[in-house]
Amino acid sequence: MPDEFTVTPWEVRGQVDYDRLVTQFGTERITPPLLDRIQKAAGELHPMLRRGVFYSHRDLNWILDEHSKGTPWALYTGRGPSSGIHIGHMLPWFFTKWLQDRFGATLYFQITDDEKFLFKDFEDLGQATKVGYENILDIIAMGFDPKRTRIFLDTEYIHHLYPIAVEVAKRITFSTTQAVFGFEKANNVGEIFYTSIQAVPCFLPTAEAGREVPVLIPCGIDQDPHFRIARDVAPRIGYPKPALIHNKLLPSLLGPGGKMSASVPESSIFTTDSLKDAKKKISNAFTGGRATVEEQRRLGADPTFCSVFAFYNFVFEPDDRHLAEVERTCRSGERLCGDCKLELWGKVEGFLRRHKEAREKAKDRVEDFLVRD
Amino acid sequence: MPDEFTVTPWEVRGQVDYDRLVTQFGTERITPPLLDRIQKAAGELHPMLRRGVFYSHRDLNWILDEHSKGTPWALYTGRGPSSGIHIGHMLPWFFTKWLQDRFGATLYFQITDDEKFLFKDFEDLGQATKVGYENILDIIAMGFDPKRTRIFLDTEYIHHLYPIAVEVAKRITFSTTQAVFGFEKANNVGEIFYTSIQAVPCFLPTAEAGREVPVLIPCGIDQDPHFRIARDVAPRIGYPKPALIHNKLLPSLLGPGGKMSASVPESSIFTTDSLKDAKKKISNAFTGGRATVEEQRRLGADPTFCSVFAFYNFVFEPDDRHLAEVERTCRSGERLCGDCKLELWGKVEGFLRRHKEAREKAKDRVEDFLVRD
Question: Which member of B8, B15, B110, B302 has the greatest number of CB atoms within 10 A?
Answer without folding.
Answer: B110
